[in-house]
Every structure is written in structure tokens, then in C-alpha cells.
Amino acid sequence: MESSQKYSILSNLCTRGLLAVALLTGLLPLVTRAQSGEVVPKAAPGAPIAMPGAPVQLGKNDTIMTGAILYEGDTIPYRVLADIYIFGGTPAQYARMMERWNRLRNAVYVTYPYAVAAGRVINDINAHLAFMSDEKERKAYIKSREKELRGQFTNQLEQMSVYQGRILMKLINRQTGNNCYEIIKEYKGGFNARVYQTVAFFFGSSLKQPYDASGEDQPIETVVQEINRMYSRR
Predict the structure, then answer these.
(1) Domain parsing of the chain, residue ranges
(2) Are 129 and 141 in contact (CB under 8 A)?
(3) How many Å apart are CA 172 and CA 176, to the nearest integer?
(4) Which of 81, 114, 156, 225 is deepest in the core (most CB within 10 A)?
């Protein structure tokens, strides 16, 4: 055998021996752990194999802060996900739904400040009337407060649409606990309340409409809470 061939064969054997030593050095501990029943984590494709005893080098994204809860002795990470709304209608139905929602939301934004103001005035009137026993004195006080309200809100209320007026009556009920019919009956008498109720009926509304925050009027309540959060009003 020629010397060049002997050198080539010897070189190949040495190379294979070095590779075998390297593989055994790096993989033998993993094989031993696997045979002992310990779970061996899989490395990501292309990731270098950590040598035993070598310090672990963490990248900036390897440590992530997250919330956690304790459940039966275990610490379980958790994250609050954003709400997802699923609508099963057609695009045209969705467009109509959004149109109705935007109309309602705009009406609540327009009328809620007046409902809050009216609620404060009505509650203040009731507090004063509680100490008035003379009927003439009560009527004079109510008339003076009515004049005050007319001067303060007439121009703004006249610019509202019928739809916004309905929402306003709902919100006044929310703020005072009484529908508009009861309020008018208390301050202006039963006859006036019936007259106003008749007028409201011809406009497709009612002074007696209730307010159900968890039922029919939940969309209105949702917008009200949105406004309260925005202006920190409680």
C-alpha cells in the first residue's frame, strides 16, 4: 500500500474518532437522563446543544413577565385577552346594527348631561318639598324651580329630536327612580300628566316608560358607563 493511501486512511480514522468523542461527550448525559426516565427537552432547530455545567445564556425575550394564579398548589400563568364579538348576520345586517348602535350612542352622549342635571334638580326639589306642608307654598316653590329649568334648558331641549327625547326620558328615570309621568303628576297634577302622556303617545313614545339597566335598556347603560369612565363620574 502506498504511503499516500495509508495517510488518507489514517486521517479518516482520526477524524471519525474525534467526531465520535465529541458526540459521546455531548450526548451521553442526555442518553443517560433519557434512560433514567427523565424528560429531555427538545432543542429548537438550529439551536446549539448546551454542554453540561455550562452557564445558560438568556436572551432579552427569554424572560417574560406575566400574571399568574395559584390552583391546587400549582402556579399557572394567565393573561386577560381582549373581548371578541362574533356576529353571524350578513354584512348588510351588521351595517344596520352598527347604524342603530351609533344612533343610540350619540343620543345618550347628547342627553345624559341633561338627565344628570335634571336628576340633581329633581332630587333637590324633593328634599325641599319634604319640609313644606303648605300646598300653596309647595306650588310656588315648584313654579319657581320650573321657571329656572326652562331658562336653563329650553333652547337645548328644543333642538333635540323625538328619538333623543325618548332617550332623555329613559335617563331621567335612571337618575331619579321615577318615570316622567310620575314626576309631572307630582309637580303639575294628574291632569297635566295625562295631557303630556297623550302628546307623547302621538309621537310614538310614553312618559311611563321604565328603565331596565340589565334588560331592555342594557345598551343605554353600557354607553352611560362608558361616559362615566371617561369623565370619572360616579
Answers:
(1) 1-39, 91-231
(2) yes
(3) 6
(4) 114
